[in-house]
């Protein structure tokens, strides 16, 4: 897929518009099935991690770090000590994420490329990447899965859209009637077109040669789960 989303080149988007679009993406993820799929599998992984210290968690392509904030809140409610490192490749997105998490002691924000993470093997207990895999070409997506497997001891979760005609139609309706940001209106339907089917996601795992499975979730969500 050669078409690029506007968020793939944030230099073309102003700070206010960038923040507004990322917030709209967060609301879609929160209310249209993305977060439940991610949290279901993350909870399973977190319960496998050691409890004698804070669980080390990696958030790849963190965006506004909303998922990290929600995960930190969940961990507090369940008395699970956690230390989250949120990474992104874009400096301007990192600045927004750092501002958004300034009050959260459990979260730190760092610049890193999910295709070549600057961390040693097993540096984290678990990791996740939410709603970002479709931004990568297939070979790059394979690298992301390999890197998550390398740095996460107990496993990882990658959640994203599932490419489907009905999901594309729904995104077109949201772009026309709900989303206000021109960035989201452009990127939303394109995100569905660029996303993977369940079969393609399974093929990515096979090509990465990692221990993983694919689960489908309603509505039109995929969860790729890496088993440590």
Automatic annotation (TrEMBL):
GO biological process: methylation
Residue span(s) of domain Methyltransferase: 57-153
Keyword terms, alphabetized: Methyltransferase, S-adenosyl-L-methionine, Transferase
Name of the molecule in the record: Methyltransferase family protein
Pfam family, one: Methyltransf_25
Molecular-function GO terms, alphabetical: methyltransferase activity
């Amino acid at each position: 897929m050669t078409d690029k989303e506007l968020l793939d080149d944030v230099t073309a988007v102003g700070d206010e518009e960038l923040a507004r679009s990322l917030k709209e993406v967060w609301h879609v993820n929160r209310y249209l099935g993305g977060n439940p799929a991610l949290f279901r599998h993350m909870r399973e992984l977190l319960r496998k991690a050691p409890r004698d210290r804070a669980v080390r968690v990696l958030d790849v392509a963190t965006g506004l770090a909303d998922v990290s904030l929600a995960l930190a809140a969940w961990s507090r409610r369940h008395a699970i000590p956690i230390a989250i490192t949120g990474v992104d490749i874009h400096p301007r997105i990192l600045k927004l994420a750092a501002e958004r998490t300034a009050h959260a002691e459990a979260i730190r924000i760092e610049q890193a490329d999910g295709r070549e993470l600057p961390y040693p093997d097993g540096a984290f207990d678990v990791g996740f990447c939410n709603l970002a895999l479709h931004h990568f070409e297939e070979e790059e997506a394979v690298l992301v899965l390999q890197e998550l497997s390398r740095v996460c001891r107990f496993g990882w979760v990658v959640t994203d859209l599932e490419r489907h005609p009905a999901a594309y139609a729904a995104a077109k309706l949201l772009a026309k009637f709900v989303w206000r940001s021109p960035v989201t209106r452009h990127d939303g339907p394109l995100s569905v077109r660029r996303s993977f089917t369940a079969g393609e996601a399974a093929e990515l795992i096979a090509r990465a040669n990692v221990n993983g499975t694919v689960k489908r979730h309603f509505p039109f969500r995929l969860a790729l789960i890496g088993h440590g």
